[in-house]
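Long-time lurker, first post. I've been practising inverse folding by hand and with some scripts of my own, and I keep getting stuck on stretches where the structure tokens seem ambiguous. Below is the full token string for one chain I'm working on. Before anyone asks, I'm not after the true native sequence, just a reasonable design that respects the backbone. If someone could post their per-position residues I'd love to compare against what I wrote down in my notebook.
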């Protein structure tokens, strides 16, 4: 974690990009935050629906609230998350989501 992290529920001393990331006709949106150490995260909301995303780098998806199922690469069984949960997705992969209730998420991009 960056030393910009103050507590589990907030970040300090970050740059927030004004332009939103909008996907799937506005059903998934996020804002990018940049840390002084070069790390990047997005904070967003996913409305109910079925989605597929691709990754360029390894990602940690932290679900803060909501209800969803995720199908990770090379898996045949869906992982269910209700409330809080997290999962990793490897670089250069795709994963599927079935969002049942509005999901609040934080995505960390891991470039190590």
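-- Answer (accepted) --
I ran through it position by position. Result:
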């Amino acid at each position: 974690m960056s030393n910009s992290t103050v507590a589990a529920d907030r970040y300090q001393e970050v740059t927030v990009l004004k332009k939103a990331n909008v996907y799937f006709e506005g059903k998934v949106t996020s804002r990018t935050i940049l840390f002084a150490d070069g790390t990047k995260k997005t904070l967003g909301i996913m409305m109910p629906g079925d989605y597929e995303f691709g990754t360029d780098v390894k990602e940690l998806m932290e679900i803060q609230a909501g209800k969803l199922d995720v199908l990770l690469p090379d898996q045949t069984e869906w992982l269910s998350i209700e409330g809080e949960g997290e999962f990793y997705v490897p670089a250069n992969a795709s994963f599927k989501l079935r969002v049942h209730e509005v999901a609040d998420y934080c995505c960390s991009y891991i470039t190590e």
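A couple of notes from the structure itself: The chain has a mean pLDDT of 93. Residues 14-110 form a domain with the Jelly Rolls fold (CATH 2.60.120.10). Happy to go over any region you disagree with.
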